[in-house]
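seq/struct pair 1
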Amino acid sequence: MEIDFALFLLLQIVQIILLLAIASILLLLVYRKIVRPKSGAFKTLIVLGSGGHTTEMLSIASSLPAPLIDDATFLIASTDRMSEIKLRQKFPGAMVKKTPRAREVKQSWITSVYTTLIASFHAMWFVFMIQPDLVLCNGPGTCVPIAYSAFLFRFFLMQRSKIIFAESIARVKSLSLSGKLLYPIADEFVVQWQELIEKAPRARYVGFLI
């Protein structure tokens, strides 16, 4: 069962990367014909995962300096009502955007192939339109297509988004699945437990963020 899941996960990751790469090339062709001027304001994209991830990320966002949060856009899953409620309580006037989930709770792995593709293309278009200077995320799966879209656009020299991933405080001795997927591409990988440095040598230990 674990082998089947690992193989399925690997195939999904390869599929997403290939499709996003192809889509990035197509958008690059469009981008060269329609170059949209970027506004002078620093744009931060903050991805709210759900549940405890949302609580942690809102705590992190509250500690950000004004230039990083004033023009921030918060991205949540379209079915995640609780995160939107928490966000409105913390930042009443925040700019909120919604994205399809790659996989719902208890959704079968087979049907999640389709929903992952939809989420990936939506993420790609969303990042292309917003052109964030900073992508801040902490998992779970909602942030993976967003981060990889930002990475691929940067690879093709279309945007220069910096990606920061903050591992959840719940991860003490091992990285989360999102952390494992984003560790290779994150510009800064933050952990809240020093034990994780052994698993991710490039990570930066910052102590508790909440």
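seq/struct pair 2
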Amino acid sequence: MNLNWQTEKRRLADILYRRATQGKEKVPYKEIVNKSFPEVFETCVRNYARRMFSSENPIRLEDRGRYDMENREVKEYVYGLKKAIIHQTIFENEEIRQLCNFAVDLEFNILTRPRRAILDLLFASSDQRSKEDILTVLQGFGGDRPFIHKLLKTIENLGFESIGRDKYEIMSRPLEKQIYSETPISAFLIDSNLFMDFENAITGQQDRKIRSNIVLGMLKERELDQMVRSFAKETSDKDSWTAEEIENTMDRFLLVGLDSITSDENEKTADSDDSISLDEEMRLEEEEPADNEKPLKIQFAEEKAKRETEAPSPSRTHYIPISRLKDKSFFLEYDEELIINRSDIESQPPGPYPALYDLIDARDRKVFIKKLFGKNKEQYLEFIDRLEQMDSWKDAKAAIDEELRVRDISPYSKEAVLLGDVVFSRYFKK
């Protein structure tokens, strides 16, 4: 399975490389960010351009006391000059090749084998990571992915300041099992559609299909072993699957009446004798006994009935993201300590402030471009660059209000409110 996936990664990376370079030996920064590529690739390009600028340091200003280098106007001009130079970065062919390989490898792993990919990503260089670092990494992937969404909610509720590799292993396996046991069809359809989105962003096409070897591998990674056998029977004469075909096959499997779709190995959560007790160390949310007592085939039937009566099929609507915009708890549950009184805005914390590109996740970015900037990506990037130069929330808010006024967009629309919230969080970390 891994050999097949390596072949798929090379295929996708080659396609992305050819689209990005267009046969050129050198590629300007703006030719990449102004086109439609996977978000993970564009992020890699932006971060690499910033690192190159920091490393080569093409602007050198020496402050010998004669000039007020802390003057706000001077700082804004210097910052604007740096941004302009970064946006004029010229990438060598081989640099683009390496960025394509890295971006495809990262996103492919996160989509196909999320639990193990997150483990490798978080603990590649250290066996211990702070809770804050882990949450920052996970939030960067957005809230659409079932496993990452569940993992984020769980870690947020933990009373630990740091998490080790062993604790992650103990915590993540039951979470994965819960997701793909209780709602296997809905969760797997979301995963499958996200992979289709990723491949389409690479190829520039709208082919809503996923290759058979990818489907089988994703089922295996989620320990849906008996479903693997069901899908494998139809794979011999089938190169790819649509979301509707995946859903229908999973529904047919449901009718067989098997009591369990998960492998026996799923019960193994730790190998070492001195492994930490999940109940004692992780303090995870208790599962409802009523759900645990039901055979899995009954849970599947209930899930299917619920999907048919309450929501459209993901195969017909692509997928329904588990997004904070549709999560009522995002609006209803809050900590009073996180509320910032209006009077406190006058005492805005000092900088430096994080980059907006790091605060705006892929899903919100697409929403802003589509709903606020009329699908004009270049205008969106120019506006974000302007906001980046502002050291005051009041100035940023005024710029947002003016932009909305010019575009005749209500400042009370959910997209406008969301943009204001994200920009506000740049200046007030809590």
